[in-house]
Structures are given as structure tokens and as C-alpha cells.
Amino acid sequence: MKKIFLKYKFCVIIAAFALSIISCSDNIDAPALQLSLSSTTDTVKQTVTFTIIGSAEYVTIWTGDSTHNYDGYLQELSTADTTTPKKIVHINSGVPLDIANNQYIYSYVYKKAGVYQAVVIGTNTADNSAKIKQTFLKETVTVTGSK
User: Fold this and answer.
1) Where do the domains of the chain lie?
2) Measured between alpha carbons, how far is residue 130 from residues 23, 28, 56, 82, 91 in Å?
């Protein structure tokens, strides 16, 4: 009986060890995403449709205008005063998307003429978000004055 118990205990220890190796794996894939637009040249107040196909745990789109500018957000982060315990307020923000069935269609209307850098960021995580891999997709959108 004691021999069977020791054999059982040994098997449980080996199984737990194997499971810990598998769960602590550093293998994390970068998101596989594709981006297409209904048009990269449009007029003010016309809808631009972004189609994102692929898989990722998290997807965020930055349309590139004055309040959804990814480069502006990075600039805000680099100049933020983190020494005082106050909430940092960002002017620029991305729009989180929920990809269902490996596709998301996002429609946006630009209110001003200009050249915008749209950015889509796909993120996959592991180990409770301690490890991340990201895919960045960029597309230039040119918006001209009204018709």
C-alpha cells in the first residue's frame, strides 16, 4: 500500500512539474491583423470605414485626428509629471475595439480637412499581462475640404 502511495505521489509531482513548465512558457504570438479602409482619400464629414481582420486579445484604433492621435499620446506620456500623486489626464486616446469572429468594422467621420495617421494596435498578453507582444498597423488618411 505504501509503495502504491509513493508511486501515486511521484506521478502527481511529475505532472505538476510538467504543467508548471507548460504554463510558464515564453511562447506568445504577436497578433495577426490586417487593416483595410473604404478610402484613404475622402472629404470632410464623409464616413471612412476601417476593417480590421485577424485575432488579438486587445485591439485599439487611433484615427489620427486631434483627440485620437497616437503620436500625441506618446508625447503626453513622455512629458507627464509623474512625481505628483494626481491623475494624469490624456487629451489623446484610442478607441478599444472588441473583435468578434476575427473581424471588426469601425466607422469614423473626420470633421476637419488634413492628413491623418491612423494606427491600429493589436496586443496579446501572457503571465497576467507581464509579457506582451504587439502589432502596429498604420494607414494615412487624407481628408479634403467639403464637396
Assistant:
1) 26-144
2) 13, 11, 16, 21, 27
C-alpha cell of 19?
A: 504543467
Residue 46's SS3 state is: coil
pTM more than 0.70: yes
Q: What is the CATH number of domain 26-144?
A: 2.60.40.10
**Cα separation values, 15 from 1, 2, 22, 62, Å:** 21, 20, 11, 45
117 contacts 140 by C-beta, under 8 angstroms: yes
Q: Does the CA dihedral 10-16-22-24 come out positive or negative?
A: negative
Torsion of Cα atoms, 72 then 70 then 40 then 50, to 10°: -140
Give yes or no for a contact between 65 and 111, defined as CB atoms under 8 angstroms apart: yes
What would the pLDDT profile of 48-106 be if each residue is shown by its tens digit? Answer: 999 999 999 999 999 999 889 899 888 887 877 666 655 556 677 888 887 777 888 99
Burial class (CB in 10 A: 0-12, 13-18, 19+), 122: buried
Q: What percent of the chain has pLDDT over 90?
A: 48
C-alpha span between 30 and 82 (Å, rounded): 30
